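New to this. Please check this protein:
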Amino acid sequence: MSLKKKNVLVVTGTRAEYGLLRSTMDAIRAHKSLRLKLLVTGMHTLRTYGHTANEIKKDGYQIDSLVPVKEKSDMLQALMQEIAGIRNYCLRSRPDCVLVLGDRDEPFAAAIVAGHLNIPLAHIHGGDVSGPTVDESIRHAITKFAHLHFPATTKSAARIRSLAEESRRIFPLGSVAADMVLNEKRFSRAAVAKVLHLDAERPWLILLQHPSAFESVPLKKQISSTTSALKAFQYHEKIVIYPNTDTGNEVFIHEMHRLRKFGYRVFKSLPRLLFMSAVAESDTLIGNSSAGIIETSYLGTPTVNVGDRQRGRERGPSVIDVPYDPEQIAAAIKRVIILKKSRKGKPFPSPYGKAGVGKRIASTLARELQNHALLNKHFIRS
């Protein structure tokens, strides 16, 4: 007698997290014991950020529930809307598991709902340490809600254990970023140049920077320090991507719009594969995105990491950290341009593991969801 398929509800709220989740979503969909359910919310539903829910549909995924967030909602307003929408869907459908990734308000909303409705929660990329943002608190709060943990590194797994979680629930399988970067064929430089209206003969730089409201440096100075540094690279084409919905994003977006008159290519969002292809073809990624710490190393592209947003996150030798100082940022860009040329496209060493993570997560979910005691968590004293 075959076992009934377990419904795994994947909740996604941002363009970046969706790209990371894809290999696991595909593995769940292909697994004989699992059934993929998909709830889309957060930035995916906002016109300001390109309404990337449409990208998910174009990729061939069925969206089982769309939980919209009102335009111009602040982070707390968005969180409340997400909790209400996820609650309503879970009450109707009663999934066997909720799967989330990372540390933003959308997975936090899903964790709160799953906890109150007694639904097992699985969490990817818990145990990480970044910098002084609300994400840090959210990430560890989700850990305490979660019944299954899929940390990306052994250090992250150790942090989860230090939060009194049971070792039997912790599976350090590597980062799903490896799947996203290593398993897909990227676009050629010529193809990227055509789509983004770039000169393929000139070198490229990418700016992806988010506001960091918990740092002492004013938001306007955070972004202007970087854009001032970019003036030293007149010959480079500049690709600029909108920040996320964190507090202060309107300050960053205003500055990014201003850059258009200087010939910068400014985008609300880039499809996952196009973004990865552009990064691979660029001299560097500049800003403070976790993508610059994790994904870019697999692509052989170094990162200039600005400020403290990613301060504690594990990284390889591809990352140079700089403060909010135009001269130091410009000097770091010059260094990584030389580094990029010397590597000739060769990936950098990474602490985040090898490809195949999504399949390993799906197999673990299928096995662990048969455990009738999964919801019975115990506080482990050290």
